[in-house]
Amino acid sequence: MEALDSKAVISMMFIGQTLSIIIFSYYLISYRNVDSQIKIYTIGKGLQAFGPLLSLLFADDLNPLIMALTVIFFYPGIAIEAYCLVYFKQKKATNKLILLLSASALALIIYMPVSDNVMLRVIVSSVYYSFIFFFIFIKSVLPRGNTNIQRLVGCIALLIFLINIARGLSSAFSSQKLELFAQELPQTLFLLAFVIVSFTFPLLFLLILQERNMQKLHELNMTKDKIFKIIGHDLRAPICQMVQFSELLEDSFDKIGKKKLIHFIRDLNTSSIRSFYLLENLLNWALSNTGQLHHHPEDINIKELINDNVMLLNKQAADKQITISVNAHYSGTIIADRNMLGTVIRNLLSNAIKFTYPKGTIEVHCTNEADKLRLDIRDSGMGISQESMASLFNVDNNQTSLGTNNERGTGIGLILCKEFIHKHSGSIWAESEPGKGSTFSFLLPLSKVSKQP
């Protein structure tokens, strides 16, 4: 082990951290719109590099003050790395980063008073590192849907966790003091463990980001394919129908009876409205997927918004003699984007009308559940099979269903509803049985300034 003493191992650790900083800095300099997680990860690696650097610079005089400065940089650096590895999918996980940094701050507060005592110092560090790596293990291995690369990160973290447990127990229940440059096996394994982390975690983090980018590309391709399919079939058909109607009216206006003329005009109007809503959904969906649809929250009277959208669709409901009733037990305000929330309500109402039989009923219920607004739209329509329910809000759902009057559906409205509700940190779901109608519901958090009149 002479060739692989503690100083050599710490030097390897420093080289690993430095290489990571160089690689990620290259990404930051060379590419525009770099993922924010890469920026945060680079900061974490930079903080970690100070730990081994200080240890090497003051190897001959490694006093408690130097050790304290080392962990001041190293603890938050490890916490930031853990955050990036675990929460790379989530755009708004700042509270998780604050939680991990708070844990590192607590560990530092405990560490400082005992920095003169080598045994207590080792125990505190071992406990903190055990917490961090066990946290990475739990979040990387247990959740369903995680990839093999994420699970590999978790397995490495479990190994580091066990090594730190062994190191802490060895210091607590034996006479070994385990100074930083000690040659005992637990200390050597501890340092080697961080060398493994220094070289493997950055590579695995890049692979995880690559996997996410590939997934995004796949979703964008599916979105593109679905948009082209809708334009080529579902939007083209009603526009062709409107052209035919308008040509027929132009060529045979004097020969068409009044009743037939009214019938043609009604059909033309219906096709125009459906095409308009479909085109609006397509545009909103395209803007949302390209990040150009901005969220502008404002104070909205929810009952007024519901009634406005019911009025917009009254004619569509009247054509099928469908009754729409609104029961707003909560009629206060909510902080939301008016256009987005209106689009969600309009799409859900339009779907309910489409799949409700003539002379049926639609009920809109608006209630307050604790600190959330709940809106339910129930119809007495044909219902949805369990097989169709499973892919109802998915972009790769290629099933198209005909309404009770053979109205065509594309599914894009529900996808848009899901995206808009998620932009408001809400949830949306459906409950249905074939032949027993459907209920589409969503929950939105109420702002503290929202009020019940």
Compact description:
The chain has 453 residues and is α+β, with helices and mostly antiparallel strands. 64% of the residues lie in helices and 10% in strands.
Written account of the structure:
The structure is a single chain. The chain is an alpha+beta fold and 453 residues long. It has two domains: 2-219, Up-down Bundle (Rhopdopsin 7-helix transmembrane proteins); 295-445, 2-Layer Sandwich (Heat Shock Protein 90). It is 64% helix and 10% strand. The chain has helices at 6-30, 36-57, 64-86, 94-111, 118-141, 148-173, 185-252, 258-289, 302-312, 314-319, 338-354, 386-389, 412-423; strands at 297-301, 323-328, 333-337, 361-369, 372-379, 427-432, 438-445. The strands form two sheets. Strands 2-4-5-7-6 form a five-stranded mixed β-sheet. A two-stranded antiparallel sheet has the order 1-3. Helix 9 crosses helix 11. The radius of gyration is 30 Å and the shape is elongated. The chain starts with 5 loop residues before the first helix and ends in an 8-residue tail after the last strand. 34% of the residues are buried.
Low-pLDDT ranges:
448-453
User: Structural class from helices and strands?
Assistant: alpha+beta
Number of strands: 7
- Helix-residue proportion: 55-70%
Report the sheet with the most strands, covering strand number, pairing sense and barrel closure. 5 strands, mixed
β-strand percent reads 5-15%
In one word, what is the shape?
elongated
- What is the terminal-to-terminal distance? 76 Å
The H-and-E topology, N to C, reads as HHHHHHHHEHHEEHEEHHEE
Specify Rg, calculated over alpha carbons: 30 Å
What is the number of helical segments per DSSP (H or I, 4+ residues)?
13
Q: Average pLDDT value?
A: 81
What is the total number of structural domains? 2
Q: State the CATH superfamily name of the largest domain.
A: Rhodopsin 7-helix transmembrane proteins
CATH fold name of the largest domain, please? Rhopdopsin 7-helix transmembrane proteins
Q: Give the oligomeric state of the chains in this entry, treating copies of one chain as homo and distinct chains as hetero.
A: single chain
What CATH first level of the largest domain would be assigned? Mainly Alpha
